[in-house]
Amino acid sequence: MKAEKFVSALKDIGIESVAGVPDSTLKQFCDYINTDGKDELKHYVTANEGAAAGLAAGIYLGSGKPAAVYMQNSGLGNIVNPVTSIANTDVYGIPMLFIIGWRGEPGVHDEPQHKFMGKITDKMCDLLDIPYSIIDKDTTGEELEKILSEASRVLSSCRQYALIVKKGTFDKRSGGDYANAYTMIRENAVRTVVESLGDNDLIVSTTGKISREVYEQLDMIYGDHSRAFLTVGGMGHASMIAYGIAEERPDKNIFCLDGDGAALMHMGSIAFIGQNRPDHFVHICFNNGAHESVGGMPTGTPGLSFSKIATDSGYDCTVTVRNEDELKAALAIAAEKKGLYFIEALVAASSRDDLGRPKESAAENKTGFMTRLRGEEG
Questions:
Q1: Same domain, 51 and 131
Q2: Under a CB-based contact definition with an 8 Å cutoff, are residues 321 and 279 in contact?
Q3: Do residues 346 and 287 touch, judged by C-beta distance below 8 A?
């Protein structure tokens, strides 16, 4: 179906506002409401899906009208608290319409981080007492109208309703190519970091294309990738995983390779790390102002300075770099002595079309990482 017809159908049941975190399954819908259809609905890109549900609650309280919240199905984890503690009819009874991209749908090939959530997406809705319908590329306009009519009825009873959207539901559309003013290529910046590593250095990389780039660069430069933990799922949690490793392995220098969208999702981790002050930790945030791994849609906080946030959070040394020479200089400073460092690398919102993916399973990569550490201990 065309994204514009879907948006029109949402408006027909009284939806005027939409908030969420972009998803590749919903890319055509996200592109439309951010470009050609930006005047059709009030649109907010939030830091995480739970925040979008909170925003939807506020919109309803202020206007009396339910809002829509869009997300990848992994975002169901982030909405559990606001749904069960605020929106459910046993509490405040606040209606909202969820639009959920179904990654990891059983029987459809997808990345490993989506496999388990794909199996339980519909069951999560059942458990959260959220009636739902599944839509796909074969859903007709008449069928969508009936589904949304039922959704409207449920919303009118102060409950929530979900549309679970299969891959390929929306027709492809032109446009939606986002860019920024930065010129440093992230893959080259990742290579610069990897080339700087010493024998005592470990990497924890965030979900998405950053981990894919780390994987390729480590294999090309060192012949294997066992010194990196590739956080292929759990967006926003790489920095705390890195901190946990730093606590357990003070003999190692920990490099956390983060993304701006991921850092936004659970920004409290920066404050936590800054207050707990590991002295062998280099936190690098590749900031392109976009959710590039799921289609490139801009984040909701363009121009935000992560290095300033890290400074206020207690990091020993923070710097913003715009090219590889500046990045090399920042890495050299971090290598001179122990400390808590934050490097914000401003990078272009682009990547190679033929960027590879890990050949091993997530569990195999975990085992390789831990085996390397055990071998070094011996």
A1: yes
A2: no
A3: yes
**Domain of 318, in residue numbers:** 186-377
> How far, in whole angstroms, is CA 221 from its chain's centroid?
28
**Residue 32, burial from CB neighbour count under 10 angstroms (0-12, 13-18, 19+):** buried
How many structural domains compose the chain?
2
Question: Which pair of tokens denotes residue 373?
Answer: 């550490």
For residues 202 and 81, the answer to whether their CB atoms sit within 8 Å is: no
Q: Are residues 124 and 218 in the same domain?
A: no
Residues of the chain with pLDDT under 50: 378
Handedness of CA 160, 164, 169, 173 (dihedral sign): positive
> What backbone phi and psi angles, to 5 degrees, belong to 157?
-95, 20
d(CA 363, CA 351): 26
pTM more than 0.90: yes
Residue 336 lies in a domain: yes
Neighbouring C-beta atoms of residue 11, cutoff 10 Å? 12
- Give 237-250 pLDDT, tens digit per residue: 999 999 999 999 99
Give the residues across from 340 on adjacent strands.
281
Same domain, 160 and 191: no
